[in-house]
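Dear colleague,

Thank you for sharing your sequence with our group. We've completed the structure prediction you requested, and as agreed, I am returning the results in plain text so they can be pasted directly into your records. Please verify that the sequence below matches your submission; if there's any discrepancy, let me know and we will rerun it promptly.
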Amino acid sequence: MANSSPWHHLYKTKEWYRLRWNQLQAEPLCRRCASQGRTVAAIIADHVKPHRGDVTLFFDGTNLQSLCKLCHDSAKQREEKSGVVVGCDVNGLPIDPNHHWNRSKR
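Please find the predicted C-alpha cells below.
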C-alpha cells in the first residue's frame, strides 16, 4: 500500500478499521500459507480483486482475504503484476488455476 496512492486515505477510515478487524477475526491465518499446508498468522486484510480506488470494491467485505506480511508483500504483489499465482499446494502441484497442469484436458 503506497502512501502516495490517491486512495490511501480510505485506509484511515473507521469503516476500514472495522472491516479489517472483522476479516482478521473471521480468518486469523494466512489464506495463501494455509493453501500450501503452512500455519501462519495473518496481519493484513488484503483485497482479492485490486480496488484501484473504487470505494464500493474497497469496502466490499466479500473481496477480502487474510494474508501474512510476507505473502502480501511478495507473492501477492508478483501475482498482481504478472498475472501468475506463485506457489504449490501440499502435494507439490501449482496453485495457479491457469497453470497447464491444472487445466482440464479436452
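Summary note from our side: Helices lie at 14-26, 31-35, 55-58, 69-82.

Kind regards,
the structure core
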